[in-house]
Amino acid sequence: MHPLFTPDGSLTLYSERFGQHYHSRHGAATQARVVYLEGTRTHLHPAPRVLEVGFGAGLNFLTTLSSALERGRALDYLAFEFDPLPAALLAELHAQHPLAGHPLWQAVLKTWGPGGLQLETPELRLEVRVQDVTGAALPERWASALYLDGFSPAANPEVWTPDFCARLAAALVPGGWLATYSAAGAVRRALAAAGLEVHKHRGLAGKREFVTACRT
Ligand SMILES: C[S@@+](CC[C@H](N)C(=O)[O-])C[C@H]1O[C@@H](n2cnc3c(N)ncnc32)[C@H](O)[C@@H]1O
Question: From ligand 1's centre to the CA of 113, what distance in Å?
Answer without folding.
Answer: 16
